UniProtKB/TrEMBL annotation:
It comes from Pararobbsia silviterrae. GO terms for cellular component: plasma membrane. This is DHA2 family efflux MFS transporter permease subunit. InterPro entries: EmrB-like, MFS, MFS_dom, MFS_trans_sf. It is a multi-pass membrane protein.
Length: 462
């Protein structure tokens, strides 16, 4: 690959990373304004966030197989096209159900942008250039969450909420041209049979547990939620039986024999509930309860992303000094406490303290993700790495969906019990923060000697 094509490839993949990351956060600050347009409450808008994240969780495992079967360039082009069409349909929606369906379409495209982008780099650049190339495109992934809340708030105030989706059209159009013009077609890869049965069982299990936690009907909620939870347990059990019998299942059960992978996977799922609930709940609290404008609430979220970007460089020396087990135990407690402390934010709460709270959350949460990612995947063999990373990505997106579902549901439950939404938000923050706090106990089951970093030998003293 010549230098010109190499540079073009990096920008193509970076644009995909940026669009996918941007749309996970840009919606949050616009939700109250969109709720007014659709004549619903702000909390009723949570399916807009959940549908996007849940569809990405469900479809991520299929992305690699699709790239192998149809070619990286063709699948990446299709992913951008579906994402752009979904964005256009979102902007044209006139009812909440139309918007949710459009977000599902957008999520179908979004589910392939990051994994296929990584795969395109892996297949097109040399091993010596891969780490630098991945670092370059990862910057775009970091910029998305940083700019998302601010851009969302600015679009709502300056133009309209429709532009949080329309912004994807020009970026996507350039991406489509660039993919067609610069992305190598690639040679056909060996195609393994796709496990459609396992894929269906896991997809049904994720959808059912999400719906069980936030039942979409108003009558017989308890019965329907219980039935959906039973479907979740049944489909998980059926997948285990299926994976034991099938040669080459979607995810080998042998992955879970690696103790740190299993512990890390569960710890990630639980810890990320609070971390995913906060970016959804806080803009709603600021706008609906405290009277902030959309742009002000977006700027309020900025310390999380800014401090988080700086804090990433701290995680390696801290783990080298204290080890994964101690670091994750202490840091998880800090993340959970910072989430729960958002219950204190009110009209009388000093702004400086609120910024400090969010900065602490941003720093600890950024380091938490880096440490959890590393410890979960560290012990997998090269043969297990691809499958394990795919499952891990799926769990991350599922946790985002569950965080929004649980956080929004708790606000509604507590508001109904105590007759005030303000109390609902406070208790919801306390609860999701406590869930993250409790996940600290999960990391105590790590096989610490296997993940303890090597330390430099102590200097000989005379």
């Amino acid at each position: 690959m010549n230098k010109h094509s190499h540079t073009a490839l990096l920008w193509i993949v970076a644009a995909g990373f940026f669009m996918q990351a941007l749309d996970t956060t840009i919606v949050n600050t616009a939700l109250p304004n969109m709720a007014v347009a659709f004549h619903v409450s702000a909390l009723d808008m949570r399916p807009v966030v959940v549908a996007y994240a849940l569809v990405m969780a469900m479809l991520t495992p299929a992305s690699g197989w699709l790239a192998d079967k149809f070619g990286t360039r063709r699948v990446y082009f299709t992913a951008i096209l579906i994402f752009v069409l979904g964005s256009l349909f979102c902007a044209l929606a006139h009812r909440l159900d139309e918007l949710v369906i459009a977000r599902v379409i957008q999520g179908i495209g979004g589910s392939m942008l990051m994994p296929i982008g990584r795969l395109a780099l892996l297949r097109s650049v040399s091993s010596e250039e891969y780490i630098g190339a991945l670092a370059f495109v990862s910057i775009a992934g970091q910029l998305g969450p940083m700019l998302g809340p601010v851009l969302g708030g600015w679009f709502v105030e300056a133009i309209s909420w429709h532009w949080i989706f329309l912004i994807n059209l020009p970026i996507g159009a350039l991406g489509l041209y660039a993919v067609h013009r610069f992305l190598p077609a690639g040679s056909p890869a060996e195609i393994h049979p796709f496990d459609f049965v396992g894929f269906t069982l896991l997809s049904v299990s994720m959808a059912s547990v999400s719906l069980a936690l936030d039942c979409p009907v108003d009558t017989h909620r308890t019965i329907i939620s219980s039935a959906l939870f039973a479907v979740f347990l049944l489909t998980v059990g059926l997948y285990i039986v299926h994976a034991q019998r099938r040669r080459g299942p979607l995810f080998e059960l042998a992955l879970f024999r690696e103790r740190n992978f299993s512990v890390g996977l569960v710890g990630n799922l639980v810890a990320r509930v609070g971390s995913s609930a906060l970016p959804f709940l806080l803009p709603l609290l600021l706008q609906v309860q405290l009277g902030y404008t959309p742009l002000q609430s977006g700027l309020f979220m900025l310390p999380i992303a800014l401090v988080g970007t700086v804090a990433k460089r701290w995680v390696t020396p801290l783990i080298q000094r204290y080890g994964y087990e101690t670091f994750l135990l202490v840091n998880t407690l800090i993340v959970g406490a910072s989430i729960a402390s958002c219950a204190l934010i009110s009209t009388h709460w000093p702004l400086a303290l609120a910024v400090i709270q969010l900065a602490i959350f941003g720093a600890s949460n950024s380091m938490q993700f880096a440490a959890m990612n590393s410890v979960t995947l560290k012990g997998l063999t090269p043969a297990q790495a691809g499958s394990g990373n795919s499952l891990f990505s799926m769990i991350q997106m599922l946790a985002m969906s569950l965080g929004v579902t649980i956080g929004g549901s708790l606000v509604g439950v507590f508001a109904h019990l105590f007759g005030t939404t303000a109390v609902g938000y406070r208790l919801a923050f306390a609860c999701v923060g406590t869930i993250t706090l409790l996940s600290a106990g999960i990391f105590r089951y790590l096989d610490a000697p296997r993940v303890r970093p090597m330390r430099a030998p102590e200097p000989v003293r005379s």
